Amino acid sequence: MRKELNMPATVGDVLKCLRKMSDVIHENKEYLTELDSAIGDADHGTNMDRGFQAIAKKLPELVDKDIGDILKTCGMTLITTVGGASGPLYGTAFLQAGAALAGKQELEPGDLLVAGEAALKGVLMRGKATLGDKTMVDALTPAIAALKEALATGAKAAEALEKASMAAETGMKGTIPIQARKGRASYLGERSIGHQDPGATSTFLLIRIMAETAHEIGF
Ligand code: ADP
Ligand code: MG
């Protein structure tokens, strides 16, 4: 527990969040794979779990690093372990977030937006998806917009992340009735309609856990 509210988030807090991310991906491994079995190749859960377990293993060595370096290490780890389409995309997201937070030992709420916008930009550049293509972008884009709006009205990080998480969930559910235009699911054409996108789901889970962590640490 923190002694005071509205303190910046520390390296320890970031490591805690990454640990919780690896746990939530592990807990949802079967669920994510099941979603991917409907419109993909049934590997999204195993891909993501492999990557986030590799991150979890590295966390003890990262205690002396700054937040930028920690996120860059996560990005490299995801790129080299996750595979599939999602590995390079999540890897890029973490690399770009890390670059945006280079040298930081602490985070203010506004840093979340800087990192989030960099992550989204990286995903868009790498994957060339746009909103409505039925990908992780459909969860990430509204989440960053909600984060921005909430922070602009002076919300605490936890509240702003809560808004972002709710927007990501709505975006994730919005992938159900639409046809995939990017990634493996797009090969199915109209048959991709009626299924929730696995990558949008993992994105929502990761943002929700960030919100939960922020609440827990009083950020
Ligand atoms: P693969 O499709 O190679 O098996 P995964 O199953 O791990 O990889 O990840 C699939 C997810 O990746 C999809 O559900 C979608 O959200 C995301 N995705 C695929 N292609 C793109 C893209 N071009 N841009 C953004 N996200 C994408
Ligand atoms: Mg897959």
Structural notes for this entry:
By secondary structure, this protein is mostly helical. It has a single domain (9-217), classed as Alpha Horseshoe (Serine Threonine Protein Phosphatase 5, Tetratricopeptide repeat), CATH 1.25.40.340. 66% of the residues lie in helices and 2% in strands. The chain has nine helices and two strands. A two-stranded antiparallel sheet has the order 1-2. Helix 2 (29-39) packs antiparallel against helix 3 (44-58), helix 2 packs antiparallel against helix 9 and helix 7 (137-152) packs parallel to helix 9 (198-217). The longest helix has 20 residues, at 198-217. The model has no long low-confidence stretch (mean pLDDT 97). The chain binds adenosine-5'-diphosphate and magnesium ion. Adenosine-5'-diphosphate binds next to helix 3, helix 5, helix 6 and helix 9.
Topology:
Blueprint: E1 9-10, H1 11-27, H2 29-39, H3 44-58, H4 67-81, H5 86-100, E2 106-107, H6 109-127, H7 137-152, H8 157-173, H9 198-217
Helix pairs in contact: 1-3, 1-9, 2-3, 2-9, 3-4, 4-5, 5-6, 6-7, 7-8, 7-9, 8-9
